[in-house]
Design a protein that fits this description.
- It is a single chain.
- This protein is an all-alpha fold.
- It folds into 2 domains: 69 residues, lambda repressor-like DNA-binding domains (434 Repressor (Amino-terminal Domain), Orthogonal Bundle), CATH 1.10.260; 76 residues.
- It is built from 7 helices and no strands.
- The two termini are 27 Å apart.
- About 4% of the residues have low confidence.
Length: 171
């Protein structure tokens, strides 16, 4: 909700991300991350953002309020809501990392299984009678796949291992 409100209000004022970033003394990528929901502004930046967008912090956070004045209780409420949003973002990022880790592990497993299968086959298809067109096509395809696989798969395997290690890296 916050990210959509920031984007919609910025566009309604006719500001680009770059112009908004300059007004808030941040880089354009920061505004982009807020609008994509990848991060949230801290409470003081949220107040500045609301001022620049000519709205209240509560409206940015998705609430309809009657009173436009911020007091100490409102700041505490805003901080609590930002904490909830940050926890949600952290959970989403952790889930993405977990999915990436499982995909990379699956790639490694598939590569190992295919290497074992090719080793067990021992290029048996090369002894087929290639005068038969069906065997010729199948044998050529198998040989071409094995040829490319044996040369490319080690790089993919190493890249996947590095990716798995990076997903376990402490932040």
């Amino acid at each position: 909700m916050l990210n959509e409100n920031i984007r919609n209000l910025r566009k309604a004022k006719g500001l680009s991300q770059e112009e908004m970033a300059i007004k808030l003394n941040v880089v354009r990528q920061t505004v982009s991350k807020w609008e994509k929901g990848l991060s949230v502004p801290d409470s003081s930046m949220l107040v500045s953002l609301a001022d620049e967008l000519d709205t209240s912090v509560s409206i940015l956070l998705g609430e309809t309020v009657l009173e436009q004045c911020l007091n100490e209780g409102d700041l505490k409420s805003i901080s609590e809501k930002l904490e909830v949003i940050n926890l949600q973002l952290a959970k989403r990022n952790e889930m993405r990392i977990r999915i990436i880790r499982y995909l990379l592990t699956s790639v490694c497993t598939i590569i190992l299984v295919l290497f074992v299968a090719f080793a067990a086959m021992r290029s048996e298809y090369l002894t087929w009678d290639f005068n038969n067109p069906e065997f010729a096509i199948a044998g050529t395809l198998l040989h071409g796949f094995e040829f490319l696989f044996v040369r490319v798969a080690p790089f993919i395997f190493i890249g996947s291992i590095i990716g798995i290690v990076f997903t376990y890296k402490k932040r």
